[in-house]
Design goal:
Blueprint lengths: L3 E8 L16 E2 L2 E2 H11 L4 E6 L5 H6 L4 E5 L6 H8 L7 E7 L7 H12 L3 E7 L8 E4 L5 E5 L6 H4 L3 E10 H10 L14 H7 L4 E4 L13 H21 L3 E2 L5 E9 L4 E2 L3 E9 L4 E2 L4 E7 L4 E2 L4 E7 L4 E2 L3 E3 L3 E3 L4 E4 L1 E4 L2 E2 L4 E4 L2 E3 L1 E3 L4 E2 L4 E3 L9 E3 L4 E2 L4 E3 L2 E3 L4 E2 L4 E2 L8 E2 L22
Parallel strand pairs: 1-4, 1-6, 4-5, 7-11, 12-14, 13-15, 14-16, 15-17, 16-18, 17-19, 18-20, 19-21, 19-22, 20-23, 21-24, 22-25, 23-26, 24-27, 25-28, 26-29, 28-31, 29-32, 30-33, 31-34, 32-35, 33-36, 35-37
Antiparallel strand pairs: 2-3, 6-10, 7-10, 8-9
The structure holds uridine-diphosphate-N-acetylglucosamine (UD1) and calcium ion.
């Protein structure tokens, strides 16, 4: 039986270089706080407990991350990574192994971390290290003549010879919790920074005869931390590149993989085509053969097979059926569902409405709080007046209705099946099924009327 895994996420640092009032770990990468990415990794590894050490920004971190699977421990003053671990130790059990992660290192793969956990479960200390061309600032891995790890020396405490070492500490390590507890109590702060260094436990492990096993990430960016907005932007691009790569591997056509932003989860069927500069937020599902034009934003949307969304369309919290045509320049707002073969054209806004099969709203209209039947045709410039200044009311438009252009439907109002509304109508009462209803001032012609002409100024 393997001992259970407990994960400690260090997230107390201030992040001065972010130049922000928001705690560093709450800054977002792909629409999710940095810490959220690390918490997801912890859950994916099947941690029995995940403990977050927070400090700077006070309760903002636990509040933003509220999750009943997380334990939060306050490190009121930051006296180093060893001190941070010490605050959390009372929460951890003796029969577990502890994996230490960092709230500002968001992109580590679970496949990079698993070997460390396995090493710890086998009684070793698993340490993630990486060779960097520019190792400045990092703790260096000091090995003996046989290549065995002896200790870590922090940059500020290192000799010139040690600073020449390119293998650095990522900070990520795993070991049995009972050892960690013992070693943390032995840490001293007699070093260049006057801090309790977690890294000093490596020498203690060696002293106690443990094997230090080093593993390495497949990619350097897996262990990069965020200390500035520039580094955040850099990791965002790397992460988006990875997402784009996965979509391409799954068969999605991306007109330019460098111009795609997924801030959530995007799942695609077969033969999906996505043009440039689209943003996908929350949970977005695109069915087979869906096409998304340039510059669209889709947030929490399900789009069924064969639908085409043309350029500059924004869809928010909606369900889009099969074989629809949306855009260009459509806006679909929350609570909307479109059935099959629905057409929504340019400068059309739809909110909290259900539109049934084959209906068309092609130009310059507002449809809000509406239930629309099948094969309805809405003329250009139609407005549902759903708000009386105090309350919202529904409009019901039954099957096969034809609404002429520039019509206002003052809700609550119902247009019966097969009815026609004449262009320019302001409908304030229900329109009977099958009939033509219109409200229109009688047209008149003034015979012989003359247009005024400009008078010549005298003098
Ligand atoms: C640490 C390592 C160094 C490694 C580097 C990798 C130590 C002593 N050094 O150095 O070997 O190469 O990370 O980036 O561990 N934190 C707390 N509480 C504290 C101090 C830090 O929660 O009291 C958190 C920070 O928020 C941060 C992480 O621990 O997420 C690392 O702290 P930082 O001060 O950046 O450590 P480094 O000096 O970079
Ligand atoms: Ca750091």
């Amino acid at each position: 039986m393997h001992s259970k895994l407990e994960i400690l996420i260090l997230a107390a640092g201030k992040g001065t270089r972010m130049r922000s009032d928001l705690p560093k770990v709450l800054h977002k990468l792909a629409g999710k706080p940095l810490l959220g990415h690390v918490v997801d990794t912890a859950h994916a590894l099947g941690a029995a407990q995940t403990c977050v050490v927070y400090g700077f920004g006070g309760e903002a971190v636990p509040q933003a991350m509220a999750d009943d699977k997380l334990t939060f421990v306050l490190q009121a003053e930051q006296h180093g990574t060893g001190h941070a671990v010490k605050q959390a130790l009372p929460q951890l059990s003796d029969d577990s192994v502890t994996l230490v992660l960092y709230g500002d290192v968001p992109l580590t793969h679970t496949r990079t971390l698993r070997p460390l956990v396995t090493a710890a479960q086998a009684g070793k200390l698993g340490l993630l290290t990486v060779k960097l061309a520019q190792p400045d600032g990092y703790g260096r891995i000091v090995r003996d003549a046989d290549g065995r790890v002896r200790r870590i020396v922090e940059h500020k405490d290192a000799t010139p010879a040690e600073r020449a070492i390119h293998e650095v500490n990522t900070g990520i390590l795993a070991v049995e919790t009972r050892h960690l507890r013992r070693w943390i109590d032995e840490l001293k702060n007699d070093n260049a920074q006057g801090e309790y260094y977690l890294t000093d436990i490596i020498a203690l492990a060696v002293r106690d005869g443990l094997t230090v096993e080093t593993d390495h990430p497949a990619f350097e960016w897996e262990v990069l931390g965020v200390n500035s907005k520039a580094q955040l932007a850099e990791l965002e691009r790397i992460h988006q590149g990875e997402i784009a790569r996965a979509l391409l591997d799954a068969g999605v056509t991306l007109m330019d993989p460098a111009r795609l932003d997924v801030r959530g989860t995007l799942t695609c069927g077969r033969d999906v085509v996505i043009d440039v500069n689209c943003v996908f937020e929350g949970l977005v599902e695109l069915g087979d053969s869906v096409q998304v034009g340039a510059n669209c934003v889709l947030r929490n949307v399900k789009v069924a097979a064969g639908t085409r969304i043309d350029a500059f369309t924004l869809v928010d919290d909606a369900v889009i059926g099969e074989a629809n045509r949306l855009g260009p320049f459509s806006r679909i707002r929350p609570g909307t569902s479109l059935a099959r073969d629905v057409h929504v054209g340019n400068f059309v806004e739809i909110k909290n409405s259900q539109i049934d099969d084959g209906s068309k709203i092609n130009h310059l209209s507002y449809v809000g709080d509406t239930t629309m039947g099948k094969r309805v045709n809405i003329g250009a410039g139609t407005i549902t007046c759903n708000y009386d200044g105090a309350n919202k009311h529904r409009t019901v438009i039954e099957d096969d209705v034809f609404v002429g252009s520039d019509t206002q439907l003052v809700a609550p109002v119902t247009v019966g099946q097969g009815a026609t509304l004449g262009a320019g109508t302001t409908l304030t009462r229900d329109a009977p099924a099958g009939e033509l209803t219109l409200s229109r001032a009688k047209q008149l012609t003034v015979n012989g009327w003359k247009r005024p002409v400009k008078q010549k100024k005298e003098g």
